[in-house]
Amino acid sequence: MADFLPSPEGPDLSNPGIDVTGGSSGLAEEKETLHTLRKDEDYYMEDTFMVFQVGNRLFRIPTYLLAKESQLFGGMFSLPQNKESLEGYNDENPIILPEEFSSDDFSNLLHAFYPQEVSLSLFLTTPKWISILNLSMKWNFTKLRAFAVSELERMQELTPLQKVRLGRDNKVSSWFIEGLTAYVNAPSPMTDDEAMDLDFEDHITTAYRVYRIQERQLLGGYNRPSVKQEIEEVFKDEIVSLRADEAALRQAEPDVPFPPTPAAVDPLWGDVDAGPICPDEPIIPDVPAFYEPDVPAFYEPDVPAFYEPDEPAFYEPDEPAFYEPIAIPAEPASSYASKKKSKKKK
User: Fold this and answer.
1) Sheet with strand 95-96: strands edge to edge
2) Rounded Cα distance, 192 and 195, in Å
3) If pLDDT is split at 50, 70 and 90, which confidence band does 180 have?
4) What are the Cα distances from residue 58, in Å, to 47, 79, 90, 195, 240?
5) Is 344 contained in some domain?
6) Domain membership flag for residue 94
7) Sign of the C-alpha dihedral, residues 179, 180, 185, 189?
8) In this protein, which residues make up the domain named BTB (predicted)?
9) 56 with 95: CB under 8 angstroms?
10) Percentage of residues in the chain having pLDDT higher than 70
11) How far apart are the C-alpha atoms of 304 and 339, rounded to whole Å?
């Protein structure tokens, strides 16, 4: 029992593993080491977790990427908060998003920022990429928006209606033109539902304009302009506005720090039977993530949008429209009677 009681004389300092005499020098060396340490610029994260309520679901996520990739969230997280409320720090007082945002859309966005598995690419369905594109546009995630656009273009599963709507909402002028071109070239007219979906808010004449372009293409003959030229002319104001917004977004898009797409990464390592590529040794393509051609994005021909021939539209021959034969005049009866009288006299 006495073995477990402390010695009245104090602790035993005879243990050679404890430095009693050189303690001051050890502390000095430790302080000197701390002065030489520096925080890593990329991976020393002073992060906090915040709770969001979207619909009837709670999400608790780190705020670092949201604040870094979006000025909207960066400004929101930097605002001073009342110590009594501390919004977002617990389940009882979450940050509540407006009802227009669905929990599924928010979950898809977080899947892009915080993938559950380490992978060379991010495999999502077309509907999920569409929801990511819509939210990234609304919340100013410019790099994520660019990544979603590139993935949807690679998958090539958008319908003409989706191209027109998404092109308008997310400032992708090429999708807008491609969708309208598909409707003009379609063998059958658009349905009433498609016409209603095209004409929303202030775009109330889209279906009618598409119909007029179709009509001119059918009646124009060989001298008609191309479908793209007519769309550029008829929807000129809207296309110019889309391109201006698109250029502003492109200037705000630095290099996209997301996983490369399967099209940009060789799925096999060496031989065909060698199996999947090693995640630690990815094949990094030499081409940039987004190709920027030297030529302008849209070709502007020198010829006018509508060809005006020098010849008249209808051929007008020099001859009369109907043939009128030259009639031979008949010999008058008086001359015939005079001939008979002259014969009798003889």
Assistant:
1) 57-62, 49-54, 95-96
2) 5
3) very high
4) 19, 22, 10, 38, 41
5) no
6) no
7) positive
8) 46-122
9) no
10) 58
11) 77
- Looking at residue 322, its amino acid is F
For residue 313, name the pLDDT band (cuts at 50, 70, 90).
low
With a CB cutoff of 8 Å and minimum separation 6, the contacts of 60 are 49, 50, 51, 52, 91
Spatial CA neighbour of 156 closest among 136, 190, 182, 134? 182
Task: Please state, in angstroms and rounded to a whole number, the distance separating the CA atoms of residues 147 and 124.
Answer: 12
**What is the total residue count of the chain?**
346
Distance CA 289, CA 241 (A): 26
Structure tokens at 242: 């889309």
State how many domains the chain has.
1
How far apart are alpha carbons 182 and 194 in whole angstroms?
A: 13
Range of the domain at 214: 159-254
**Domain membership flag for residue 308:** no
